[in-house]
Amino acid sequence: MDYALAVATALGALSIYLLLPRGRGSLVKTGALVGVLTLGVAILYLVRWVGHHEAVGQGAGLGIFFYLFAIIAVISATAVICHPRPLYSALYFVLLTLAMAGLFILLLAQFMAIVLIIIYAGAILVTYIFVIMLASPGGNVAVADYDRVTPDPLLAVLVSFVLLGTVLQLMFIGQPRTFMAARPVRAVAVGVIRGHQSLSDKPALRIGGMELLGVNLYSQYALPLELAGILLTISLVGAVMIARKNVPVAGVLGTGQMPVE
Questions:
Q1: Domain count of the chain?
Q2: C-alpha span between 27 and 10 (Å, rounded)
Q3: What pLDDT, on the 0 to 100 scale, is given for residue 179?
Q4: Which one, of 43, 217, 78, lies nearest residue 160 by Cα?
Q5: Most CB atoms within 10 A, among 34, 84, 144, 163?
Q6: Per-residue pLDDT reduced to its tens digit, 167-216
Q7: Which of 173, 202, 228 is the endpoint of a domain?
Q8: Helix, strand and coil percent figures for the chain, each rounded to 5
Q9: Is residue 168 a part of any domain in this protein?
Q10: Of the candidates 137, 69, 151, 61, which has an alpha carbon nearest to the alpha carbon of residue 103?
């Protein structure tokens, strides 16, 4: 067990617990101070861990953009769950989505970054804001207690950070399993193929992330893609049928006319 990582996880749990909305007697400043300390400890631990693996030849160092996007993502995620106003939480969710898209771009997963922005920062967030605006009381109406005070903050933080600490321990100090390849019982030469083909004049085939995804999507996964499209079309038709107006037909019976909407 890595005790430094466990201490950083415990500090993070304490910071989130202090930052959660609790109505009166809020400890936001103390929680923010503990959060800054936790973030600094986490960055130092990550720099040390990456430097150790780089020194032994097991990986390359992380760039400045990784740390920048990671810090923005952590701060934004904290603001999403700890801000007392839901509308501001939704806006911080946009910032979190952009930071995660930047991390995906650093991993050369451009398609995932684009999908993340289009789906989460576009469609889903618009739905969130629409629901928040409809559910928010206007005027001088008092806000309900469940919108001002976090229910069971200790239990929520405890369960979340126990799970997070377990995942981090397995990720940073877990030993990878090695599997022994089966040895062949007997090797028999069945034939020899002789030939020579010059590849110097052949153009190199370079396929990036988007191109490779498109090739695989429309070759190996063409049938699942078509089935998904059919299911989405059926659901769209069903939604249109449900949303249709129920037009009374009593007034047009016996006239030979069709009811219109």
A1: 3
A2: 17
A3: 46
A4: 78
A5: 34
A6: 888 877 765 554 455 555 565 555 555 655 555 565 555 555 677 777 88
A7: 173
A8: 65, 0, 35
A9: yes
A10: 69
